[in-house]
Amino acid sequence: MTTNSALKQLLQAALVCALMIILGLFPGIPLGIIPVAVVLQNIGVMLAGELLRPRYAFAAVGVFLLLVALGLPFLSGGRGGLANLLGPSGGYFIGWLVAPPINAWLLAKTQATKRGVGYELVLAFACLVLGIDLAGALWLAWQSHMALGLALLSNLAFLPGDALKLGLAVTIARRLRRVGRVTNR
């Protein structure tokens, strides 16, 4: 990778991180059935997995989570601090950190971006929605002393919104790739 390419990826990672911060200005929508809210910030996580190379996807989300851990109020609704990262939503944050690089790696290995939007959507849904929801449910079950089956079942409430957000993220990523604004492969 050339220095120019690395700089471009670093700038794109910084932009994705900034987008996650901006999306945190919107308050979460509480579901009531579990102590985890619906947020818009995962659009930024999805874009990281769609637009960036694996290590830069990890870096974009990692820097965001580090800033939150340091107490900056970047989570949805102006929350911040390590306690928020270790609360009931903690597993989702772990998923946020791990799923984008995996998705980016799989996109590159399978050349999913060249196979059509359906293939890319299925791959991204498996990594960026189901993978994150699985990590979130495992943590939620452990942290809240909830049955794992119930935690997994409660994630069904997130699937319609996450599918819409993923569709938006994949559409934006494909458009940016087509006009040559992003070169992640």
Folded structure, characterized:
The protein has nine helices and two strands, in the order αββαααααααα. The chain has helices spanning 3-23, 42-51, 54-69, 82-85, 90-110, 112-115, 117-143, 148-154, 159-178, and strands at residues 29-30, 37-38. It has a two-stranded antiparallel sheet. A hairpin with a 6-residue loop joins strand 1 and strand 2 (37-38). The longest helix has 27 residues, at 117-143. The chain starts with a helix and ends in a 7-residue tail after the last helix.
Total tally of structural domains? 1
Alpha carbon gyration radius: 16 Å
- The mean pLDDT is 90
Q: Spatial order of the strands in the main sheet? A: 1-2
Series of secondary-structure elements, N-terminal to C-terminal: HEEHHHHHHHH
Number of helical runs? 9
Quantity of strands, as a count: 2
Helix content: over 70%
The end-to-end distance, rounded to whole angstroms, is: 10 Å
CATH first level: Mainly Alpha
Which topology does CATH recognise? Answer: Arp2/3 complex 21 kDa subunit ARPC3
Largest sheet: 2 strands, antiparallel
The assigned CATH architecture is: Orthogonal Bundle
* Strand residue content: under 5%
Indicate the structural class. mainly alpha
